[in-house]
Amino acid sequence: MSLEFLHRQELFKQEAYWRGSWNEGNPDLKIQVQNPASLEVLGAVPALGQKETLEAIDTSKEAFSDWSARPAKERAVLIRNWADKMKKNREDLALLMTLEQGKPLNESRGEIDYASSFLEWFAEEAKRTYGDIIPSHRKDTKIEVLKLPVGVCGILTPWNFPSSMITRKAAAALAAGCTVISKPSELTPFSALALAALAQEAGIPEGVFQVLTGYPEEIANTLIDHPDVKKISFTGSTRVGKLIMERSSKTLKRLSLELGGNAPFLIFDDADLEAAVKGSILSKFRNSGQTCVCANRFLVQKGIYNEFISLFSEAVLQLKTGNGLEKDVNVGPLINEAAVLKMEHHVENAKTTGAKLLLGGKRIEPGKLFFSPTVISDVSEDSLSMREEIFGPIAPIYRFDSVEEAIQIANSTPSGLAAYAYSTDYKKIRLLSERIESGMLGINEGLISSEQVPFGGVKESGFGREGSKYGIHEYLNVKYVCIGGF
Ligand code: SIN
């Protein structure tokens, strides 16, 4: 299956969407996009830079006056239309995603549902950005609190979830009355451009949602430096998040940063082992382990350590690695050569620090970017996989003795995005809920994302929340108004 199987070829856009129209930019400056499974070039997108970003900012600012002034209900209808368009074109969007990102087609379908759920959710939330009336401290004044859209927003999103990371931000921003300039990853721009085509079809006015493809640093820096861009929302690495924060200080931008994780996955002696194995597989191997929230370190208590390893390894052996377009494939390719080299480095490091390689640990067919699902036991606390975000299909397993030790190790990294724990003891569950340092915690559950929940981290995993009733507030300013003369 390839691009010619799209039901609607017009969703495969090789132009960017800015200044209110589709534009191919300079025909001599293009970025090619490849399929990580076959390494075939799928197409090319404009390599835009500072000039086009400045134009997009002007357009976005102009569009903001009208968009922010519309009744919330009117914005809601258009955002909802966008969600409906996504649902209607689910198969095409999923195919595009698998072709450019590599994830299994069923996962892509799931991501399209996930992505459209944010549009649906925030279309509803648009109507609920209530302010307050506060009893005044004086007889002659009235006090109101208004929630107002922050303005033009730049959203910078990664390649691992090419659609949902965009809608999770854009839906909230648009619902609040902001306008959006989206810079997708240069590795997966086609999903973003298809979203823009559907936004246009849904009636989202010109300039309200623009997509710039091209030189990531140049576009991002122009957005960050510009005083008319009032907010940056970024999903990506902690390293880049810190650079964005530093650079944003010049204009004191509002920021949401959803950064790297290093999720501990704790399994206690009293856990339901079957459920724990199922949750482990889901959490670890979704998107070939390329998610910020996926299990990074398995911490398993000594009483069930051997049994867990044996059941988990059995389940890993059932996983089918291959081209995501093929039926029954669970694990697709990694995104690029650098990602595979990183896996090799992690495996080498584990071996040299005394761990045991139980399964996988190497590249496999059917292509250059496939890495076999890997299980490593007896990892030491100082091995790389325990300290760094792996972002690939490697499961390092560490043995612990006591609850205190588990909590201490779980909290021993600078990251604090997601964490998971399996136990049937409600007192332990309560303790973990309070003591694990993370923005999100799955108890007896390995898959915790949805549009209703506040997604985000603590510590060096960033700040700000996406999705849920909290997500829209990232795009609203609180204004206190004191009305005198009564
Ligand atoms: C991410 O990996 O950044 C997002 C994962 C999710 O939303 O579940």
UniProtKB/TrEMBL annotation:
Q: Which UniProt keywords apply?
A: Oxidoreductase
For whether the record's keyword set contains Oxidoreductase, the answer is yes
User: Per its UniProt record, what Pfam families does this chain match?
Assistant: Aldedh
Q: Which residues form the active site?
A: E258
InterPro entries to which the protein is assigned, alphabetical: Ald_DH/histidinol_DH, Ald_DH_C, Ald_DH_CS_CYS, Ald_DH_CS_GLU, Ald_DH_N, Aldehyde_DH_dom, Aldehyde_DH_NAD(P), Aldehyde_DH_Superfamily
Protein's UniProt keywords contain Oxidoreductase: yes
Q: Where is the Aldehyde dehydrogenase domain?
A: 22-481
Q: Which domain of life is it from?
A: Bacteria
Family in the record:
Belongs to the aldehyde dehydrogenase family.
What is the name of the protein in this document? Aldehyde dehydrogenase
**What species is given as this protein's source?**
Leptospira yasudae
